[in-house]
Amino acid sequence: MECAFVGCGAVARKYAATVDASALSVTAVCDLDADRAAAFAADHDAAAYTDLDAMLDAEAVPLVLNLTGHDAHAAVTERALRAGRHVWSEKPLAVDADRARKLVALAERRGLALGCAPINADCEAQRHAGRALADGRLGTVRLAYAHAHVGRVTAWHDDPDAFLRVGPLYDGAVYPLTLLVAWFGPVERVRVADATDPWPDREAKRPARPSHVEATLAFADGPLVRLTASFYAPHRSREFTSLELHGDDGSLYLDDAGDLGGEAGHRVAFGREGRGYAPMPIQKPSRRTPYLAGPERLAASVRRGRPDRASARRASHVVAVCNAVERADEAGTSVAVTDAGVDRPDRQRVAWCGAEEAPHPPDAALRLPPVGFGCSRYRGDEYVDRRDSIATALDAGYRLLDSAELYGNEARIGELLAAPGTPDRDALFLASKVWNTNHGHVAEACETTLDELGVDALDCYLLHWPDAWEYTGPLRRLAELPVAKQEARTFPEDDDGERATADVSLEEAWRGLETLHDRGLAASLGVCNVDRATLSRVVEFARVPPAVVQVEHHPYRPQRDLVSWCHERGIRVVAHSPLSAPGLLDDAAVRETAAEMGVSPAAAVVAWNVDRGVVPIPSSTDSDHVVENLAAAGYRLTDADRERLATLEDPEFGR
């Protein structure tokens, strides 16, 4: 779609940076500075104007990008709308709520699209934080802190005058406010506000509006928010445009509400009641959302025949909130925000971060998170308590938990699942495995697991091994038994000290799993520790085919034949023990790959699994490693990395 840029300053250059790769083309530009307009036009082979009306008369472009100074936005937008053009405006939409509302009404009457920055609600870190809100772990959010420390614009901007005229509310506060309104709907009232004028005496230019504003906002159906907007507090201070949400069950921290993404680092963190913040890594390659994304979406809505005005309505409400803050400060009293224009959004559908972007079989039976968390109690030759590490995993954002009755800690996991701060059940993928001694008693085993986990059904129930051993009774709360009793119950021996087996065929055991699936106790079925021949046999006799196969999988043992066979049939492969092969993390090829990727050897191996469309389930008791393993889903290997690690395959590998 052809478009015109009105305003050719610093922000216009940011919008134009990706225009060549977009569906938009710049055919005209307008700026009061003739030289600047001519230079910008030359860069884009566009016509240059210094008069807006002359451009609108001469050019038939359907879309105008209003990238002028803050206090010029409303006038330019109105002229473009009256000329029959769709408009994308930089923030704010206006500095007067009544005028902002009239702009939206004008666009509606004329059937035109009207959009407004910021686009932060659609950027990666903000969407990641939104998923944390959607999965229910914060509980009811009752309090929030929002900062907008814009800093001394006279020091960091080459043309600060427009900033100084409108003040920090209309330039900086719009970022956290836009996000809060997107999440919680309209602000109902400004309870209290205070505006002051701290400013260095040495500065020749001063803000025309208060340089520092603090207010308390009450959302109609959301939290009480303490808002701070400042031109005085440095923009590189600890809090730039941060948000911190506090709910009944946990807290969420976002360090930059205006961030467009594309930079490394943890920008989102969650802390449940009584625990510190755990970083929540984004489980896909970080990508910057271009400034032009907003206008591109607006143009797409026009092409679909449904001109969009949602972001403009939200922007209009944000202006109304800023106006109410100013009135509350002037009057020294509470002020209602009467111009809503937006509704409380519906609850966001729970979606696993990275699940869409991670490599996976094209016809996969299941969509899974890119990395899961193994809940086994075994660490070398020891049994360890996993409650703390599993809690950290949930806080960091793991959404696939791999358990088993053999691990003996499903009751403890169940306590965590029921505790405040844990995601809602529909946000999790819970897998468990029936142990070898229960192949003839899979219903009893599954019901015990469900009871201990405190859930109605599993997302996947698997045979831990294809072999059947002698029944030793229900394996309930094994972790509470002495180790010797645990071993006797799970590894039975006959009178000769050999493994005591049971006459239960693999097909019989699978029929038991299918009955559980029929009863709704297991949404999908799977099998672990099988070769391709055994798996092929299961697929042949199964009425409910396996959706998941869990095997040992790492560069020493890539199981290429099995993995490709599964992927051809839409069967998901889950990798247990992805990091524990002796010598793997010290291998020169792994270390070289890790160095090339800028990650640890463990993270490189996790990323290798994800790269192959396999879901690794690493297990760790170190909180830093727990987070690091999850973050590895955000890295991708190069062809050179793949070739280097392919040399590690060892057909003779065994434990």
TrEMBL record:
<dbReference type="GO" id="GO:0000166">
    <property type="term" value="F:nucleotide binding"/>
</dbReference>
<dbReference type="GO" id="GO:0016491">
    <property type="term" value="F:oxidoreductase activity"/>
</dbReference>
<dbReference type="InterPro" id="IPR023210">
    <property type="entry name" value="NADP_OxRdtase_dom"/>
</dbReference>
<dbReference type="InterPro" id="IPR018170">
    <property type="entry name" value="Aldo/ket_reductase_CS"/>
</dbReference>
<feature type="domain" description="GFO/IDH/MocA-like oxidoreductase">
    <location>
        <begin position="128"/>
        <end position="252"/>
    </location>
</feature>
<dbReference type="Pfam" id="PF00248">
    <property type="entry name" value="Aldo_ket_red"/>
</dbReference>
<feature type="domain" description="Gfo/Idh/MocA-like oxidoreductase N-terminal">
    <location>
        <begin position="2"/>
        <end position="114"/>
    </location>
</feature>
<dbReference type="InterPro" id="IPR020471">
    <property type="entry name" value="AKR"/>
</dbReference>
<dbReference type="Pfam" id="PF01408">
    <property type="entry name" value="GFO_IDH_MocA"/>
</dbReference>
<dbReference type="InterPro" id="IPR036291">
    <property type="entry name" value="NAD(P)-bd_dom_sf"/>
</dbReference>
<feature type="domain" description="NADP-dependent oxidoreductase">
    <location>
        <begin position="371"/>
        <end position="647"/>
    </location>
</feature>
<dbReference type="InterPro" id="IPR036812">
    <property type="entry name" value="NAD(P)_OxRdtase_dom_sf"/>
</dbReference>
<dbReference type="InterPro" id="IPR000683">
    <property type="entry name" value="Gfo/Idh/MocA-like_OxRdtase_N"/>
</dbReference>
<dbReference type="InterPro" id="IPR055170">
    <property type="entry name" value="GFO_IDH_MocA-like_dom"/>
</dbReference>
<dbReference type="Pfam" id="PF22725">
    <property type="entry name" value="GFO_IDH_MocA_C3"/>
</dbReference>
<protein>
    <submittedName>
        <fullName>Alcohol dehydrogenase</fullName>
    </submittedName>
</protein>
